[in-house]
UniProtKB/TrEMBL annotation:
Pfam families xref list: Molybdop_Fe4S4, Molybdopterin, Molydop_binding
Protein keywords: 4Fe-4S, Iron, Iron-sulfur, Metal-binding, Oxidoreductase
Lineage: Bacteria, Pseudomonadati, Myxococcota, Myxococcia, Myxococcales
Molecular functions per Gene Ontology: 4 iron, 4 sulfur cluster binding; metal ion binding; molybdopterin cofactor binding; oxidoreductase activity
Descriptive protein name: Anaerobic selenocysteine-containing dehydrogenase
Length: 733
C-alpha cells in the first residue's frame, strides 16, 4: 500500500510517500507530487518508522513503584491523575499544580485543539512551555506591533533578492517560523536570481557556508547591530516605507531612538566592523525586495524581544513588510489568527500577573519556564507541589536543568504525557503514553500558518490505533472531564460538551475550521472550497498560492495600524544602554561565551534513541577556536571541563575556526546518562546537557525568554585526560 503523509518532526512539513506491507512500513521517501516540498526530505523522516517500532516506546500507562515501573490500565491512570490533581488543588489552591508543555504539541492538531480546554479546566496560573526557551520574543513583538501574537511576518524566501539571516541555521534546522522544505535550494535560487544571502552568526554554520557572506558577531549583541543598521537606514536613505507610511505610528520615536546607535558605537561590542554594517544597510535599502530574518539565536538572548522588534522595524522602514520578496503574513486555510473566535488562538496578553518568586510577567497566560525550578523549590503559599508535563523534556531543554531535576524529585505528584521514560519523565508518578505519530491523522495547524507558501494538507492515520491506544487529545479531554466532574461542575452541560467534543475529535473541528476559513465551503454544501472531505480527496496537498499582501485588513490591532514603537520595548532601551555602555567594548576577563548548535540528525532532546540518527562521529563536542584552544591548552578530541555559574560538564574538544574567537559551542538535547532513563540507544550516545550550564537567572527581562546565547563559561583541559590513552573519538564538528 502507498500512503501520502506530512512529516511532522520539524517545521518543514515535507510530503512523504510511505509504502507499507502487512502492517509494517517498508519504505519512506519524499513525495514528488507534494506541491510544497516537491520531494524534499531529510534523514529524520525515516525515523518515523523507528519511533513507531521503538521497543523503548511505552504502549501503556505506567506507575512508578518501589520495585520499578508497573503497567496499569487507562481507566486507573486517568482516574488517579485527576484525583491527585484535584486533591492537591483543593488543599493548596489551584496554582499548586504546574504545567509544562513541550515542542511536539505544536506538531499535532489534536493536542493543539484540546490542550487549551484541559488547561482551562486546570485553572492554574503556573503554566509554562517551551515557548519561553524559544520564540516568545517573536510573539511579544508581533502582539505589541501587529496586535496578535501569531501575526508573525514570514520571509518570502522564494521571491526575495536579498536575505539577511541572523541567529538561524536553516540548513540544519530546516527553517523555523519559516516553514520551507528544501531550504538549501531556495537559498541557492536567490543567488541564481542575482540576489544575495548574508548570514550574521558567531559560528560559520552550514547556512553561512552556502551564503554569499558570513559576518561573525559576538553572542548577545545583535540588538546593537540591528540598531546600527536602522541608524544608517534612517540617516542615509530616510524611510522607504511607501504605502506602509499610512499604516504606521511611531516612526518619529524610532528615528529619535536610533540616532544614538551608530555602527561605530556598536562595533566594540558586536565585533562587526562599522563599515560592514553600513554596507549591509545600504544593500538592504537598495534591493528591490529584501528581508531581514532572525530566529532562535537572536530570540534566546538577553535582548531577544528587542531584536525581534528591530527586525520588524527594519523590514518596515525599508518598505519590505507586506511586499512580495519581503516579509508577509500568511493566509492559512485554518486561520489561527483571523478565523472565527472559537477556532482562533488568543491574540495574547502581557503582564496581567507575575510569577510568585521573581515577579516575572505572564505572556498570553503563561510564565517564563526559567522560573519553574524556583516556583517548586521556594517554600510559601502558592508553591507548586504537583506537575503535569506534556510532550516536553524541560530537564534537558530549559536553563539550569539540574535545578529542575532536583525540583521534580521533590514533588508530591507528577504526571507526564509522553511516550518515553527520559530525563524528565523518570521523576513522574504516572506516565501516560500517547499513540505513535503514524497512528494519528495530521494537519499542520501551526506551520501552515508560518510557511513561505500557502498550502494545506491532511494526512489520515497510517495505522489504525488499537483499542488500548489513546491520542494526546483524548487524554486532555478525559482529564478535563474528570476534573470537572470531581469538582461537581454542571452535570448536564458538562456531559453534553464532553460527548460533542469526543464525537467531533480534532478532525471534526478541523473540518469546521477549514469550512469557515478563507478558502472554505462556508458550511454550505455543494459549493466548491476546502473542507476535510475535499482535502482528503487530494492526498498530496493543495497549493493555495504564494504569500500575498494583506494589509491593513490582516492587522489585529484595534485601530488596524502598526505600532512601530511599542512602549514596553522603548522602555527597555535603558537596559540596552547599560549593558553595552558607549565607548567601551567587550571585557577580556578570560571567560568564553557559550552558544548552542543544532545538527540535521538531532531533534531537540528526544530522537537520540534512533540508531540511524546517532551513528557516526560523536556530535556532543565543544567547538573551540584555535586561538582559544592554544591559549587554554585544549587539544582536539581531549576532554575539557566547562564551568558556568550554575554547573559543570565535561565534553571532548573540537578545535575549529568555524567559531568566533572567544566563543565556544555545545549542542543542546544531550545528557542522557542519568539514572533511570530508559533509552537504550540514546544511553550509548549520552553526551552532556548544555542546559546544565545555562543560567535560570539569565533572561530577556521583558519577554521572560531564556537567554541561552552567550553564557559566560570557563574552559580548561581535564588534566588526567592527558596522561591516559588518546580518546577513542577524534571529534570534529
Ligand atoms: N535538525 C534539527 N532541526 C530542528 C531542531 C533540532 O533540534 N534539530 N529544532 C527545531 C526547533 S524546536 C527550532 S525552534 C528550530 C530552530 O531553528 P534555527 O533558529 O534555525 O536554529 P539553530 O540551528 O539553533 O540556529 C541558531 C543559530 O543562532 C546562532 N547564534 C547563537 N547565538 C547567537 C547570537 O547571539 N547572535 C546571532 N546572530 N546568532 C547566534 C547559532 O550559532 C546558530 O547558528 O529548529 C527546528 N528544527
Ligand atoms: N541551550 C539550549 N536549549 C534549548 C534550545 C537551544 O537552542 N539551546 N532550544 C529550545 C527550543 S527552540 C525548544 S522548542 C525546546 C524544546 O523543549 P521541549 O519541548 O521541552 O523538549 P523536546 O526535546 O522537544 O522533548 C519533547 C518531548 O516530547 C515527547 N514527545 C514526542 N512526541 C510526542 C507526542 O506526540 N506526544 C507527547 N505527549 N509527547 C511526545 C518526547 O519523548 C520528549 O519527552 O528546547 C529548547 N532548549
Ligand atoms: S526536514 Fe523536517 S519535515 Fe522534512 S523530513 Fe526532515 S524532519 Fe521531516
Ligand atoms: Mo523550538
Amino acid at each position: 500500500m502507498t500512503h501520502f503523509r506530512t512529516c511532522n518532526l520539524c517545521e518543514a512539513m515535507c510530503g512523504l510517500r510511505i509504502e507499507t506491507s502487512e502492517g509494517r512500513v517498508t519504505s519512506i521517501r519524499g513525495d514528488d507530487a507534494d506541491p510544497f516540498s516537491q520531494g524534499h526530505i531529510c534523514p529524520k523522516a525515516v525515523a518515523l518508522q523507528d519511533l513507531h517500532e521503538d521497543p523503548d516506546r511505552l504502549r501503556q500507562p505506567v506507575r512508578r513503584t518501589a520495585t520499578g515501573w508497573q503497567p496499569i490500565s487507562w481507566e486507573e491512570a486517568l482516574d488517579e491523575t485527576a484525583r491527585r490533581l484535584h486533591a492537591i488543588q483543593r488543599e493548596h489552591g489551584k496554582d499548586a499544580v504546574g504545567v509544562y508543555v513541550g515542542n511536539p504539541t505544536v506538531h499535532d492538531h489534536g493536542a493543539m485543539m484540546f490542550l487549551p480546554m484541559f488547561l482551562r479546566a486546570l485553572r492554574t496560573r503556573n503554566k509554562f512551555s517551551a515557548s519561553s526557551v524559544d520564540q516568545l520574543p517573536h510573539q511579544l513583538a508581533a502582539y505589541l506591533m501587529f496586535g496578535h501574537q501569531f501575526l508573525i511576518p514570514i520571509p518570502d524566501i522564494d521571491h526575495t533578492r536579498y536575505m539577511l539571516i541572523l541567529g538561524a541555521n536553516p540548513l540544519a534546522s530546516n527553517g523555523s517560523l519559516m516553514s520551507a522544505p528544501g531550504v538549501r535550494h531556495r537559498l541557492k535560487a536567490i543567488q541564481q536570481r542575482g540576489g544575495r544571502v548574508v548570514v550574521v552568526d558567531p559560528r560559520k554554520t552550514e547556512t553561512a557556508h552556502v551564503a554569499d557572506e558570513h559576518v561573525f558577531i559576538r553572542p548577545g549583541t545583535d540588538a546593537l547591530f540591528l540598531f546600527a543598521l536602522l541608524h544608517v537606514l534612517l540617516e542615509e536613505a530616510g524611510s522607504k516605507m511607501g504605502k506602509l507610511a499610512e499604516l504606521v505610528d511611531g516612526l518619529a520615536t524610532v528615528r529619535e531612538l536610533a540616532r544614538g546607535f551608530t555602527p561605530e558605537r556598536a562595533e566594540p561590542h558586536t565585533g562587526v566592523p562599522a563599515e560592514t554594517t553600513r554596507r549591509i544597510a545600504r544593500e538592504l535599502s537598495a534591493s528591490e525586495a529584501a528581508v531581514c530574518y532572525g530566529r532562535v539565536g537572536v530570540s534566546t538572548q538577553a535582548f531577544g524581544a528587542m531584536c525581534q522588534w528591530l527586525i520588524n522595524v527594519i523590514n518596515i522602514v525599508t518598505g519590505n513588510l507586506d511586499r512580495p520578496g519581503g516579509a508577509l503574513f500568511t493566509r492559512p486555510a485554518f486561520d489561527i489568527v483571523g478565523g472565527p473566535k472559537a477556532m482562533a488562538m488568543s491574540r495574547g496578553s502581557y503582564g496581567r500577573w507575575r510569577s510568585r518568586v521573581r515577579g516575572l510577567p505572564e505572556f498570553s497566560g503563561e510564565l517564563p519556564v526559567a522560573a519553574l525550578g524556583e516556583e517548586v523549590l521556594t517554600e510559601g503559599p502558592g508553591r507548586i507541589r504537583a506537575m503535569v508535563t506534556s510532550a516536553g523534556n524541560p530537564v534537558m531543554s530549559t536553563p539550569n536543568g539540574r535545578q529542575l531535576d532536583t525540583a521534580f524529585a521533590s514533588l508530591d505528584f507528577m504526571v507526564c504525557i509522553d511516550p518515553y521514560i527520559n530525563e524528565t519523565t523518570r521523576h513522574a508518578h504516572l506516565i501516560l503514553p500517547p499513540s505513535s505519530k503514524l497512528e494519528r491523522s495530521h494537519y499542520d495547524l501551526a506551520f501552515h500558518a508560518l510557511a513561505v507558501r500557502n498550502t494545506a494538507k491532511y494526512s489520515p492515520p497510517l495505522f489504525e490505533p488499537g483499542p488500548d491506544t489513546r491520542h494526546d487529545w483524548q487524554l486532555f479531554l478525559e482529564l478535563k472531564h474528570r476534573l470537572e466532574t470531581l469538582r461537581g461542575e454542571p452535570r448536564v452541560r458538562g456531559q453534553l460538551t464532553y460527548r460533542t467534543l469526543k464525537a467531533l475529535g480534532p478532525d471534526g473541528l478541523l473540518d469546521l475550521g477549514l469550512r469557515a476559513g478563507p478558502y472554505g465551503m462556508k458550511l454550505r454544501p455543494f459549493r466548491k472550497g476546502l473542507s476535510l472531505a475535499s482535502l482528503k480527496a487530494q492526498p498530496h496537498g493543495v497549493d493555495l498560492g504564494p504569500l500575498a499582501p494583506s494589509l491593513p485588513q490582516r492587522l489585529a490591532t484595534r485601530d488596524r495600524r502598526i505600532q512601530l514603537a511599542p512602549e514596553p520595548l522603548v522602555a527597555d532601551l535603558e537596559r540596552l544602554r547599560q549593558a553595552f555602555p558607549e565607548g567601551t567594548g567587550a571585557t577580556g576577563d578570560g571567560s568564553l561565551l557559550l552558544i548552542g548548535r543544532r545538527h540535521l540528525r538531532d531533534n531537540n532532546s528526544w530522537m537520540h534513541n534512533v540508531p540511524q540518527l546517532v551513528k557516526g562521529k560523536p556530535r556532543c563536542t565543544l567547538m573551540v577556536h584555535p586561538e582559544d584552544a592554544g591559549r587554554l591548552g585544549l587539544r582536539e578530541g581531549e576532554q575539557a571541563v566547562i564551568t558556568s555559574r550554575v554547573g559543570e560538564v565535561r565534553a571532548p574538544v573540537s578545535v575549529t575556526d568555524e567559531v568566533m574567537p572567544g566563543v565556544v559551542s555545545l549542542p543542546h538535547g544531550y545528557g542522557h546518562g542519568r539514572e533511570g532513563v530508559r533509552l537504550r540507544v540514546a544511553g550509548e550516545h549520552a553526551g552532556v546537557s548544555i542546559n546544565d550550564l545555562t543560567d535560570d537567572q539569565a533572561l530577556d527581562a521583558i519577554s521572560g525568554n531564556a537567554a541561552f546565547s552567550g553564557v559566560q563559561v570557563r574552559v580548561k583541559p581535564v588534566e588526567s585526560a592527558r596522561t591516559k590513552e588518546p580518546q577513542q573519538h577524534s571529534a570534529t564538528g
